[in-house]
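TL;DR need structure tokens for one chain.
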Amino acid sequence: MRDELILLRKEHPLFTVKRILRELLRKGAWDGRKPSRTAIYRFTAAHGLNRNVSEHCGESVRPFEYPHFGDLWSADFLHGPMAKDGVHARKTYLHAILDDATRYVVSAQFHLAENTESLLGDLMWAVRRFGTPRRFYTDNGAAFRSYHLRLVAAKMRIALPHTPPYKPQGRGKIERFFRSLRDGFLTGRPKSTLQKLNADLAQWVDLYHQSIHSALDMSPLNRKLIDRGRPLEQIPLTQNINDLFRMEADKKVGSDGCVRMWRTRFEVRDAYPGEVIRIYYVPWDHSYLLCGPDKLLANPIDTARNARRFDRPVRGKRTTDNNNPQEKLS
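>> reply
TL;DR here they are.
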């Protein structure tokens, strides 16, 4: 595997290490477990095998830093450890959001998928706690280029700059945070459940906030506390924040008058079987959907309740037994 990794780097000098690992997996040169990703990242750093963008693009990488908290939040995913899920183990992915000026971690959470739903859930939590950032800076991954993120950002007037291809200016801060997290939290950690993993991560982030950051000469927490920038715009108390983060999808109504979501059937009113309707949902609440242009409420189907209608007599109709002579005379 070592020789294959070095060869791939020579053939593709602009590939990220993450992409090289995908190629190694595809070719069968690596099984995804041994050696670990952490060990591979250390090997590439120690042997000068990381991508050197400035050398191949002919441009210098210009560092920048915004002056105040909330001027720019950077977000990215990091491959995490395996987590216990009953008798099985599942891959985890860390999604982190870092403030550019203060290096304060506004959100850090492990998930079981690297997707838009994980991203939006963390962003909603951060907005509810700190307010709306002015910019949300990401790379060009699928989750960060999604229509749903653009829709949410437009509702809250958040600018969405992206890292130009092969020009990762500004990604150094969150990459450095990931290195600190690998060395100080992930390395040597025993396997645990996802809930335990996130609980321990929250404690580690608290310590990170109180530790001196070499680029700041103070802790991220102190840098945030002395910040004198314009306060971030808060979501009004009368505003349902779910409305700002609600996602959309088109679903076909089945022959039973239901649409299917999260392996659950939701009863839809005022829709015909076979009709394609627009549904609105929040990924972290599977108890209901909103359907159609009027956003009518759709709840999970209750088969027991539906069955009870057969126990009720039909009003306005009288059943006549023609074999009963007394019924005929009356």
